[in-house]
Amino acid sequence: MDPQRLRATIRAARAGREEAYQEILAAFGPRLYGYFVRATGSRHDAEDLLGEVMLRLVGRLPEYDEKGRFEQWVFRIASNLVRDRIRRAKVRPMTSSLEAESPGGGVLGETICGRGRPAEAGLRHEEVSQALNEALERLDEPSRQMVLLRHFAEMSFREIAEIFQCPIGTVLAKVHRALKALRTVLEANDESDAGRL
To answer: Model's pTM, two decimal places?
Structure first.
């Protein structure tokens, strides 16, 4: 949605027009839903969280400062909801597989293992998915959320920095270290599987 149209939609939503909220949901819903599915590992939880984001928008839209970017504001709410959900559940969710595509078509497995190397090298799909899930679960929560926002919500490093209210260098470092850790775990799994043959 172009910025001028978004501003008009926000004003209409603030005025209580329901169709404006539907436009916001149409514009941001698919990316939010994809982020929630990958963050929680559950389509049901993702639907619940999407509904919860919309309820929060209704209640908090008057607080939104139009000087900031609306998308980042929405994803900050989404990220906080995911963290709260995970804390309440006290378990880390199973996340997506290596072959899960981001909305832009990028595959996380290619990012971790490199584009020239098949993500499944020597491993069955289930083993790779399990290895990725286990590796993601080992990451600290902020790093895990940053990887998910970067690769599944297609957010820029600058946008993620604004969501987490930290310097962009911190985001770059955390995502780089997280991807390196994921790559190390997956390569170790690949080598141990090759040793069994």
So the answer is: 0.67
